[in-house]
Amino acid sequence: MLKLDRVGHAFLGRTVLDGIDLEIAAGELVALVGPSGSGKSTLAHIAAGLVEPRLGRVTRAYRAHAVIFQEPRLMPWATAADNIALGLRRHRLARAERRKRVETVAARVALEPGDLSKYPAQLSGGMRQRTAIARALAAEPDFLFFDEPFTALDVALKRRMQDIVIDTVAASGRSGLFITHDLAEAVRIAHRILVLDRHGRGILGSRTVPLVPGARIDAMIFETVQAMLGNDPLFAHVNDCDERSVA
Amino acid sequence: MPIADRAGRAGRFLWSAWAGLAGLSVFAAAWQLGHEAYGSFILPSPAETLASLAALLRDEANWALVGATACRALLGFSVAAGIGTLVGVIAGYHPAVMRLMRPQVTLLLGVPPIAWIVLLMIWFGNGAGTVVATAAIACLPIVFIGAAEGVATRDRGLDDMARAAGVGPFTRLFRVALRQMLHALFPALVMALGTAFKAAVMAELMANAGGVGEALAVARANLDVAAALAWILLAVAALIGVEYGLLQPLRAEFETWREAARPWGVKR
C-alpha cells in the first residue's frame, strides 16, 4: 500500500532523516515509535505528501488517504458538520447525501447529532479531535496517517480514541501509519511496530505484536511493553529525551 | 432556527445602538460646555447645530450634495478595496512581492493627501474624477496592509490539513486562506471607509468640486459656523450609515462563529 525507498530529508542543510525504508501491507496498521526529536512527524508528512523529500522515493498504491494531525486543525469559522464535510467537496454529492454521510461518520466517532451544528470553540478537546477523525473518515480513505493525534488528551479519552482507531482502521480493512512516542499505545492498536533511529538514520527494526488489535487485554499489553523495554535492545532508546526544536 | 437566530442577532445589533447614543451624548455634553464657555459665534450649541441641520435637510438640493459626496467616497473606496485586496493577497502569499510592495506602501502613506489633490487637479481637472482618485489613493495602502497581513499570518496548519484532505487549490484559496484573512481585512476596510470619506470631503473643498466639501467652503466664506458644523454632522452621518448599514452587517455574516466562541456573560 505504501512504500518508502531510501527516503532522506534535511532542513536548512541539517539532515533529519536518512535512508528510511519501510513498507506497509494492505489491511495493516503500523505504529512508528521513536524518541522525541527523531523526525517521526517529518517522516509522516513526507509519506503523506505534505513535504517533498530531498532523497528517495515514496510509492503510494492506494486510492485516497487522510491525515489526522497532532492538533485537530479545525476551521474555527465552520460548524463541526461543515468541517467534517470539507473533504467531501470534490465528491460532488447531493446536499442530502452529503449530510447523511456526515451523520454516519459522526456516529462512528460517537459525536452526537446535536454537536454537529456547534462551532469548534464550543466543543471540548476530545470532541474536536473526534471531529478531526470524522473529517478524515468522511472521504472514505483506504489509508490513514496519524501524527501523534492523542498526545494532548487525558488517559480515559485516549483509550476511547484508540478504540475508535482500532474500530475504524484495523478492524475495517483499512491500512494506516500511526506515529506515537507512547509504546503502550503502539502495542494496543498496531499490528506491527517500527522503531526509528534516534537521529533519524533509518528504521532500526520491526516487531510484530501478538494477537490482533482489539483482542488484546490490558495485562498482556502491559507485559509486552515491559518485555520490550526491559529485554529488547531495539527499544533501548525509545524513551530517551533529546528535545530538538525541529518539528 | 436560523431565522430566529438571525432575527435575534439583528435585534441585538439594533439594541446596541443605545450604547452608541450614550457615548455620543457624552460628546454632546462636552460640546455644550465648550459652547457655554466661548459663545455661539465660535462654537454654536448642539441644539443650534441640529436646527441648522434640519434647515439644510429641508432643501432637496442638499440631499443631492451629500449623496454626491457619499457616492464619490464609496466609488473611491470600492476601487481601493478591490485593488488593495487583490494585490494584498498576492503579496501575502509571496514574500518577494511583499518586499517589493512594502516601500511603495510607505511611499503612498508618506505623500500627504493635499499633495495628491494638487497633482490630481492638474491631471483630471476640478471634477468628480479628482475626488474619487484622492479617496482611492488615500485608502489603498490601508486595505493592502490589512489583506497582506491577513494572508501572511494565516494558519499554515489549516493549509496542510486541507491539502491532506484532497481539497483543490481554488477551494483552498477561497474557503480556507481568504476566510482567515477576513479578521484582518474587516478592521482595515472600516478604517479605509472613514479615510475615503475624509479624503473625498477634503478634495471637494480644495477642488471646488461640489458635494459636502464645497458647501463647507461656502460656510467658511460666510463665517457660518453652525452651517459648517451641520455639514460635518451630515458627512459623519453618511459615513455611519454606510459603515453600519453595509460593512458591519457583512462582517457579522462572516464572523458568526466569533459570537459563538465568546464565553458566557460577555454576549452583548
Q: Decide which structural class fits the backbone of chain B.
A: mainly alpha
Question: What does the main sheet of chain A amount to?
Answer: 6 strands, mixed
Compute the number of strand runs of chain A.
9
At the third CATH level, what is the topology name of chain B?
MetI-like fold
The CATH class of chain B turns out to be: Mainly Alpha
Output the number of helix runs of chain A: 7
Tell me the span between the first and last alpha carbons of chain A.
26 Å
Which bin fits the share of residues in helices of chain A? 25-40%
**Major interchain interface with per-chain residue totals:** A-B, 27 and 21 residues
- Compressed to H and E, one letter per element, the order of chain B equals HHHHHHHHHHHH
Helix content percent band of chain B:
over 70%
Q: What Rg of chain A do the Cα atoms give?
A: 18 Å
| Beta-strand residue fraction of chain A | 15-25%
Query: Number of domains in the coordinates of chain B?
Result: 1
Low-pLDDT runs of 5+ residues of chain A are none
As a percent range, the share of strand residues of chain B is under 5%
Oligomer designation: heterodimer
Please name the fourth-level CATH homologous superfamily of the largest domain in chain A: P-loop containing nucleotide triphosphate hydrolases
Task: Characterise this structure.
The complex is a heterodimer of chains A (247) and B (268). With 247 residues, chain A is α/β, with parallel strands linked by helices. Chain A folds into two domains: 28-50 and 143-247, 3-Layer(aba) Sandwich (Rossmann fold); 76-141. Helices cover 31% and strands 23% of the residues of chain A. Chain A is built from seven helices and nine strands. Chain A has helices spanning 40-47, 80-84, 95-108, 125-138, 155-168, 183-189, 218-231, and strands spanning 2-11, 14-24, 29-33, 55-60, 65-68, 143-147, 175-179, 192-196, 203-208. In chain A, a hairpin with a 6-residue loop joins strand 8 (192-196) and strand 9. In chain A, helix 3 crosses helix 4 and helix 6 (183-189) crosses helix 7. The model of chain A has no long low-confidence stretch (mean pLDDT 85). With 268 residues, chain B is mainly α. Chain B has a single domain (68-261), classed as MetI-like (MetI-like fold, Orthogonal Bundle). Helices cover 86% and strands 0% of the residues of chain B. Chain B is built from twelve helices and no strands. Chain B has helices at residues 2-15, 17-38, 46-58, 60-93, 95-110, 113-124, 128-152, 156-164, 169-207, 211-221, 225-254, 256-261. In chain B, helix 3 packs across helix 11 and helix 8 runs antiparallel to helix 9. The model of chain B has no long low-confidence stretch (mean pLDDT 88). The interface between A and B is medium-sized, with 27 and 21 residues.
